Structures
1.
Amino acid sequence: MQGITKSFPGVLANDHIDFSVEKGAIHGLLGENGAGKTVLMSILYGLYRPDEGSIAVDGREVRVDSPAHAMRLGIGMVHQHFMLVPSLTVLENITLGREPVMNGFLLDRKRMHRDVKEFCDRYRLDVDLTAPVYTLPVGVQQRVEILKALYRGADALILDEPTAVLTPIEAEELFGAMRALKAEGKTVIFISHKLREVLAICDRITVLKRGRVMDTVAAEAATEESLAQMMVGRKIVYEFQKGDAAGQKPVLTVSGLKALSDRGIPALKGIDLEVNSHEILGLAGVEGNGQTELVEALTGLREAVEGTVVLNGEDITKATPLKRIRMGVAHIPEDRYKRGVVPDFSVMENLIMGGQRDRFAKNSVALDFREASSCSDEMMMSYQIQAPGKNTPLKFLSGGNQQRVVVAREFSRNPKLVVAAQPTRGLDVGATEYVRGKLVEMRDNGVAVLLISADLDEIWALSDRIAVIYEGKIVAVKPVNETTEQEIGLLMAGGRNG
Amino acid sequence: MVEKLTGAARKTLADVWRGSEGALFQVAAILLAFIVGALVLYASGYDPVLAYAAMLKGAFGDMYGIGQTLTQATPIIFTSLAFLISSKAGLFNIGAEGQFLMGAFTSSLVGIYLAGLPWILHIPLALLVGAVAGGAWGLIAAVLKARFNAHEVITTMMLSYVAAYLTGYMVNYPFKAPGWVSQTVKIAPTAELPRILPPTQLSAGIIVALALVAFTAYLLRKTILGFELRAIGLNPSAAESAGISINRGIMMAMFFSGAMAGLGGACEILGVHRRFIEGFSPGYGWDGLAVALVGGLDPVGSLLASILFGALRSGGMIMTRATKVPLDIVIILQALVILFVAAPMFIRSLLKRRRK
């Protein structure tokens, strides 16, 4: 790809980008959110037309008009949001549109199964072909997407932030599959903003910043620090200086908490947990071990079957979400789009959510727009929310800025307890650093912080103590300086204590 | 600096465009409906220009026409607002007809049996009872939804039939006036909403309707309840996280929705018919749904779309008399307007092509 330029109203997304990938290599495309990675790859995949520039595949100049055209050229793409039919089986999804046919019109199911099975084995992508897609975890659905692209004859595979939705173990499996693809001579373009992963898996790495190529380097010659500096243009803080933790007292006490999952299966099987003031308690665990249910039970969104939740001495087990907000429970939801924001609301409306009956109420009937407006300005300023204005619909903001809106809203209520679930998921390096810094700041100010994260690095960087959740139970709680990553990893996988 | 200014100016223009795009789309849909309607007229051997001229003159040509147009528009204003408020909370209350009928019937009872009250008490009381009855009828569906997760599309529609047959029974048996018509006796004069533009039937109900437009706009834009309802409508999970009770929201939305329709029924009885007659509503509740959509789910849009539908009806009658074009063309036009509004992709693509 040479001299690729693409602008959208008000944004120059790609500015004369030169980008080339060697056959049979894993090439990393690194950059913050909004650096133009996805746009560049969407051009290659035929989703956008470039304003300027040319594309050559195997030395021949081509015009990629559509994804179908890209497919014919052997280019496949796996998007962040999967394009699967949930009710169809894995096999049906993979072959959809390319079904082998016998006698002119009958589906050749046997051949279908044999062909796809062969693909699975060759690329070490293990999937139950007969399972309906909606029953599968995200990581497996992603494998189905990859198989689908391969089945359609892809020689080059673009993976757009594939690890953003994966647990560490699933990510490892994905890397295994990527290596197998490489061994088969396939080309992989790996879009990511996670430095460690890019370094671990890629042969060469191209760094984008604000629509321009900063550099393309060999992976051996790069370090996390050097890449981060290219990406952000300054040094990134990985170690947080935490203040003194004197005068701790318990803020949240959970005992014997039991709750059911959405499907009515016990998800929490007697949780005992204590979070103190001046403390970040990191909750480590493979996703799906009850974290979601615990967060919801703590914030009042899920009914507790048994056990108690006590906040600063007051039993809030049966309290409504509103009551808990008023008592100082702040919540950064794991799924921003589902729980955190109303995308069609303006930035201001999102900022006042939760305070509409208290701080932003003029009386018992009307909202106080003057207060809402001035507070929004203040929050946008102090939390560095970049938006055209406070009346802009939130959906037009980048993911990082949307998360800043959530953080600004929750933290400016002066909470006593912060329940932060995957607070940096999907955020770029700059925004991640910012959110983590804010969590530490909260802790230093005496707030109790419960940090739930699938990212062990994050847990490690921020926590004072680490609790491990496994199958709905807390299997261990350890001060961070008295344990090792190996030990925590073992506990997360259900290994015995010690 | 200049760069910045033009940038800001461009942004403002873009905002204005975005804001007006919705309205522009509605207008385009309506114009298109009239163009296709003209083709239908022409194909049927009528002169579309003459027919439309007669319709326009009939609907807005003189005070009588305007009065009749607004009379026809009044009940639809109420029912379209009823649909609008529920839809903002993500609910599809298609049972405004039933709520309208319950409001109409109960207000007629207040009008008849509380004779002797001074009008300053009698009218508001009858209106209030009508609104509460409509609200209660809406609340049934809300409770069924909150308790048993029964879908409101089914329950509100079914409850509309229940209301139609229940009120029908009432005026055929317990409350039937002497004579062969299924209706109540007349309400007391103290309960009558005054006619404000004789000889047309336009009553003070239109003033209540206009007040309700303003009230709805205020409720949605300025109040805590409106904020909470809109949040529930746009993202219930996030609303719940922000301490908003979804069940309470459903109840409030359905009560207000039903009350608005009920108030419309009360105004129609107290202002126009002055007694409850079986089948007096030609389907105002159902019209409200379509009109709210034509109005772009905006309170003022609802008002304008209601006037359009009112004009089609009143102008259509004049047109039939003047040009022998059958009244059915009005129904065709209404259907076309709804069709084109409901086919937004089509209109949008037309608009886009024009812009290029």
2.
Amino acid sequence: MTITNAENPRSSFGYRPRPAGPELCRPDESDDVQLLPSDAVVDLDALRRESGTDDVLRALDTELVGLKPVKTRIAEIAALLLVDTMRARFGVTAPQPTLHMSFTGNPGTGKTTVAMRMADLLHRLGYLRRGHLVSVTRDDLVGEYVGHTAPKTKDVIKRAMGGVLFIDEAYYLYKVENERDYGSEAIEILLQVMENNRDDLVVILAGYADKMDQFFSANPGMQSRIAHHITFPDYTVDELEDIAVLMTDGLGYTFSDEARNVLRRYLSLRVDQPWFANARSVRNALERARLRHARRLLATEGTVDLAALTTIEAPDLLASRVFSAAAENTSGQTVDVTAGGFN
Amino acid sequence: MRITQGAFSYLPDFTDEEITAQINYALSNEWPLSVEFTDDPHPRNTYWEMWGLPMFDLKDPAGVLLEVNACRTANPNSYIRLNAYDASLGRQTTALSFIVNRPAEEPGFRLDRAEKANRQIGYTTHSYATERPEGERYGPANP
């Protein structure tokens, strides 16, 4: 029954040549790939069209407002992966580039949104095999008792393989004040995987800039294993307005011309107030405008048409407390902006 | 004697690429995989030692292969198998099971005959490996 002879001693799996025995006829793969001669030329544009890179980058450009440094870096990565495939055609191979990243920026600057897109993008560029995103926080990685952390972290890592492991608020992993915290164990395992399984997954850490700086200074190994440190800048008022318009489009609303002007004034006032969270604040403001819009429609009697149902008018925005607070400020009174959030 | 249990056991041993392809197939059917090992490969020994918990929600074979290789380094002289479990209603059973590691030396089995009343014969298989205590059956665990 067994096929063992002196030429083919059996040894452990995976580390041995194929033994003699029943074997399916398969084309020899090494013959399929014809290396290009060194004096050949490759059509760069054709390759770019084939890979679909341009589509991905264009979608990124239209759907995400601003974020210049982020887009530049993504375009660079896309170019590198493309050039690498061309080099491979000539037989020049380099190991896969490391694509672990850290996203730093203020709240609401789009770190999570970009991470989601990054998984899809790297999949389309052929860097990731699956292109799914596993989003975790400290709770998912760090255990509650001795010996709990390692299996938990490894489980998460195994699930993320072939895709992107996105660690939100990554600085919570390391707690400076408690040196017996299990977080450092999770970091150690992460470091090991980031080094050994570079081809299998991309790790993206995200967090607020100042806290991430602290985190990296406490974990220099992590800092050096991440090739791409991308800073997300705050949005300008113009960009915030574009974001608001994009968001209302997605919700099936439009601004009237007057409301558009009010929105602009609202945003320029809101930017300077405390707890401004960029796009997130815009989204919240829009949610409140929707509420007022609905209430206004119910208050008016009679019939409504589609235009009325989908148009946000100036009063919906003007009712915001941001305006009244600003008015009081200019009239010399102090306002307690901390009370009860912003309406 | 090369033992033949599970799928593909009459084929030459799989390479890592071939194992990866099988894992891929299991994952594409949404069968979670688990790694098990033993040094007592008697056909009736159904329950092998578990190497960690079954791996749920995996998308990519790299994670499973990581565990297979970890188990191989820890138990190089054991039988290691991969089980894929189909949890869909109506099946709920092991859908695929195949050996991914075997000891270098497999002494095999002996057939024991027991004479019973009325010249009846009872048969049983006896694994030569189990004559030695657990952990030493196929050479030291860590050579």
3.
Amino acid sequence: MDINLAYKISITILLFSTILSSLELIRTPKLFLHFLYPTTSKKNKHEWWLLIQSLKVVLVILTVISFYKLPAPFFYVTFITLTLLEFYSQRLRKIGKDGSDQLRLLSLLGVSFCFILDAHLSKLVPLIFIGMQVLLGYTTSGLVKVFSTHWRKGDVLSGILSTNGYGFPRFATMLKKSPTLEKSLTYSAMAIMLSVPICFLLPYPEPILISLFLVFSFHFGTAILMGLNDFLFTFPVAFPGIIVLHSIIFNY
Amino acid sequence: MNYVVIGTLAIFFIASVFYQIKSLQKWMKVFNPFNLLPNYSFFAPKPYVNDYRLAYKIVSDETSEWVEIPIYKKFKLIRVIWNPFKYYNKGMIDTTNFLLKEFHSLENKNFIKISVNYLSILMVISAYLKQEGLSEKTIQFAILSSEGGETVKVKNVVFASSHQTLNI
């Protein structure tokens, strides 16, 4: 895969993920979410929160324009400012964060940090860094589930999906009635996650592409069933990097 | 400069690998002041299979019963692309978990009233009462753990506050 194209895809997904999460965070105080900024100090009040998130939205738009239309220094400035604002926003928000918030911040920091590298390396290194982080992510997530007695029993999905917080209760009721389907879905979730690091070790491009497609489908499924839409729009940031790294290692 | 940047990212990656081992996480927190090291165990080893529900009771009104604050939303397909509720849900889980951790570690349980997490929950109740058009109240609140979404079954009370006066 061409590094410039991979970089373009990664940055575009990352910016989309950032604008979506910022817009969603603008909306959350309407849900009484005062505990997103759990201090009583002046700077953490509602208006300040809205200002920070709105600024992020504006900065994403400016970064998109500078990335596609303007010389590189403009992109560097807007992107670094966006990174600092996301960092500040996440420091402000002590709770209610998830894995995709972590990956988004790591990706923004990784890309910004690499601006000081040579032109070629400033694209290649962050792609590899983000790709390796997500490979580690799928490996850990898959292995922890495989070693978990709860997951190995094969009946956790109906439990998770029966909650109002992370679930789809009607689907959970259906799963409870069909233990074989539940078991196969539970095991396939673990298998799909582990398929990424396993296929990464194979010296052919097809298996890793198929496993990335499967894991994207898995994220799509969890976005519908569990409402985890931010994983769907954040984890693919790493896919171009995984493909580039694989092609470098196996020389194709 | 290239070596410095690549070396730093390589060290960070190695640290990320070690950070996935639970027994090392506590020890490595010293090197993780900005919480940048990721934890990728998502919903494992023990997944969330319960919801936390927030209920309050107006103590000054003898006829008052426990009222649940409606936190949860009905399933809608739009959540594939638009779901601000997930932050709220995770916020509720984190707040409750931190509150319980603080409560269990306190010798004098009355000090829980100055906990940020306790105050956050009071602010949620206060905002809800304000929306419902209720003025100054003395309330008691409780956090319940429940099972099921279609037929909700309360499992247990995980936290119950003492009487608390709110200026709304």
